[in-house]
Amino acid sequence: LKEENASLRSKINKLQIFSETQADKMRKLERKLEENKIKEEKEAQDLEAMVQHVEQNLQLMTKRAVKAENNATKLKQENALLQVQLKNYQTENEALRSGQSASLAVVKQNADLALQNLLTVITNSRASIKQLVSGAESLQLVADLLKSIDRISELSEDGQ
């Protein structure tokens, strides 16, 4: 009975050691499982953040593309308008070249009129300049007169 008891105790000890070993392994596996869960959650969050960033960049690129398309359309319309204006100017230029001799007479008449106006202005300005010179001479005479009065008054004060 003692031998059997000792044998059972030995088996119990071995089973306890085996059980503790298994418990340690289980705790290590649970920790590893928890670490893997945390790691997976972090990777999932990082992946989600990257997806959001890509979506934002895609939205920005879409906005830029729409803006570029609008600008292209606007520039095409502006180009068409400028082409029409160019044709109009070319037509007008040709018309002016054909009517150049007629307009030359008008230009000469306008030049003559401008010359007459210029001569009138010159005549009027000469009269104004003469008046200014006359006025300046009068002012100079008054200034000289005032200087002489100052000298006379200084001499009379000295002579008292």
UniProtKB/TrEMBL annotation:
PANTHER family: ENDOSOME-ASSOCIATED TRAFFICKING REGULATOR 1, ENDOSOME-ASSOCIATED-TRAFFICKING REGULATOR 1. Residues 19-92 form a coiled coil. GO terms for biological process: positive regulation of cilium assembly; positive regulation of protein localization to cilium; regulation of cytokinesis. It comes from the Eukaryota. This is Endosome-associated-trafficking regulator 1. Keywords: Coiled coil. GO terms for cellular component: centrosome; ciliary basal body; early endosome; midbody; recycling endosome. Belongs to the ENTR1 family. The keyword Coiled coil applies.
